[in-house]
Amino acid sequence: MDKVTGSGRRGGTSGVLEKWPDVAKRIAGQLSLEQMGAMDWEDMDGTYKPTGQVAPQRWIPTTATHEASTKLFVAAASGEDPRFANDAVVPESTGPGEGGSLRRLGLPGLGLMGQPTYFFRADPQGVLDKLSPEVMHTEVAIATKLTLLMDRLTPDQLRGKAPVTDQDL
Length: 169
What we know:
single chain, 5 helices, two-stranded antiparallel sheet, alpha/beta, 4-stranded mixed β-sheet
């Protein structure tokens, strides 16, 4: 039994793929979003306080499609207000989070993994006061444009097997 879900199987994307393995065969591209809207906080003289900065936002492309995914991200992020972003496209690592199971299968796309420091500590007050609607709006705008761009491309373009041209963007 899964200790987190209590269901006998893993939750989230991994659990869905485990229960319905054929789903992955029908996925042309994927976009996963986690820890959105986060502002940065840090321990200052024994008190946890806001820094006033946006928490790091790591966009993780599928390794095999890194070049195509990066092109899409740059196009989607263009024109967004940099005051509400702390974006970086980073190389795939061990594949954490909801998008990790999709990236491990080689499915083209990106996963946003916000990295607020408070994500790794238990705050009895919760995290709502640590989120920014402007940062969330920027992340949703980028994700929306990514979705539209991905929808316009062929599966071969998404997989990096055919070029993504400026006209495609």
